[in-house]
Amino acid sequence: MGPRGTSRRWAVVVISAFVVSLALWMWALRHRPRPDPAFACRLPSLLLQVAALDDGVHFVAMRTYGSRTLCIEYGRATYLGNAGYHHGVLFRFAGFVAVALFREDRFGDLLVSPHTALVLPYWFLILVTGWLSLRCTGLNARLAPLCHPSSLSLRAAGLAGAVLVILNLVPHAWKPGSAIQPGTVGDFLTLMFRPGYAYSDIMLEYGFPFVCYRRAIRNGQSVDLYYGASTGWVQHKVMEDLCIVAVAVLAALILTEWLKRRRSGATGSRPTQMQVR
User: Fold this and answer.
1) For residue range 200-225, what is the model confidence (pLDDT) as tens digits?
2) Which sign does the torsion angle of CA 153, 154, 156, 160 carry?
3) Average pLDDT score over residue span 89-111
4) How confident is the model at residue 277 (pLDDT cuts 50, 70, 90)?
5) For a surface tag, which of 83, 195, 208, 225 has the fewest beta carbons within 10 Å of its beta carbon?
6) Residue 115: enclosing H or E segment and its boundaries?
């Protein structure tokens, strides 16, 4: 097999990984009940599982008891990680999660077996495989000349970024059983900067297009739970919103620069008419 065949196979692998990552992320966005794509492998005294959940792809290795044979099955063999990981040594940043529990831990009546887990967020998988796909197909070399911005493309990219940033900073008011919509500019500013002054029972949601931060107020005080819904930052959604802003800015810059060059090229190629005296 020559270098050309190897590069083609590598490109197929990378593009397939990008498509699968994008498909898993879009599947996780669905709110109705759905099966979680997962594979599990049972080994003697060990369970290995890969599952695509709401926040990313979970790789889990857990100690088991009583298993003596090898078994591979489609679906989840353990539901560890459904509500996050709360046992052992834990590292969490920007949607990445790494956890290790070296001995059994008891949580009330629940006995948690020793395990290790790694969560790779969808934004990371899509970003890495997407960039590798551009390199393998040569599209990065074609787009590179368009990444030298002019003043026009910079203004277009800045406008797109500013609109998305404002949409991320504007809160969406929510309350069970009612819709809260500010009627005037003063009500809107109060909702943004002093929500507890006008509303004694409200939860504000921030983020576009995905909610990445929730703040709840009850009786004029900030609370951690609001009718069962948790508040605070959702790290993987923060990164997804930031990636969407970055991609939108880059797309506006490249598209504006391409349109500008195409228009200038079409203008320069027009034949000039010479007047003959």
Assistant:
1) 788 888 998 999 999 888 887 888 88
2) positive
3) 85
4) very low
5) 83
6) strand 115-120
The DSSP bridge pattern shows strands 56-63 and 89-93 to be unpaired
Q: Compute the distance between CA of residue 58 and CA of residue 122 in angstroms, rounded to an integer.
A: 11
State yes or no: cis peptide before 209, omega within 30 of 0: yes
181-200 tens-digit pLDDT: 666 777 777 777 777 777 77
> 175 or 55: whose pLDDT is higher?
55
Spatial neighbors of 265 by CB under 8 A, at least 6 apart, are none
The two tokens of residue 134 are 């551009």
Strand 96-101's sheet: what is its strand order? Answer: 71-74, 38-43, 46-53, 56-63, 115-120, 96-101, 89-93
* Helix, strand, coil fractions of the chain, as percent rounded to 5: 40, 30, 30
Distance (Å, whole) CA 147 – CA 56: 31
CA distance readout (Å), 98 to 59, 61, 65, 224, 240? 10, 12, 24, 24, 19
Find all residues with CB under 8 Å of 264, minimum gap 6, and list them: none
Q: Which residues contact 271 (CB under 8 A, 6 or more apart)?
A: none
